[in-house]
Amino acid sequence: MVLERMDALKESENLVEKEMHISRYKYAANIINSHIYHNNYKKSLSNSKYKVLDIACGLGYGSYLLNKLTGASVVGVDIDKKR
Q: Which Gene3D superfamilies match (predicted)?
């Protein structure tokens, strides 16, 4: 069974740990956005779609955040067939 390290949507989680957990995904989103901006500015890639493969995504919370924060196409895969 595969679980997220932390359920950031659960109100009973420690608020400091919750913010640190979410900030890691925001950090990754900033890197992706920076890369997208740089490439679009430098190369004018009008038809290009950015794709992210999230391996060992658990419930997919991080995949969801990356998609919402960057607009990139995100595919999450995990070994647990139930998820």
A: Vaccinia Virus protein VP39 (3.40.50.150)
Q: pLDDT tens digit string along 2-46?
A: 455 666 566 766 788 878 878 888 888 888 878 776 666 555 434
SS3 54: strand
Residue 38 within any structural domain of the chain: yes
Q: What is the pLDDT of residue 38?
A: 65
Answer yes or no: is 82 within a domain: no
Residue with tokens 């995990």: 78
Using alpha carbons, list the distances in angstroms from residue 45 to 31, 38, 72, 76: 18, 10, 14, 25
In a domain, 27, yes or no: yes
User: Nearest-CA neighbor of 3 among 69, 63, 80?
Assistant: 80
Q: What's the pLDDT score for residue 20?
A: 80
**Residue-number span of the structural domain to which 19 is assigned:** 15-77
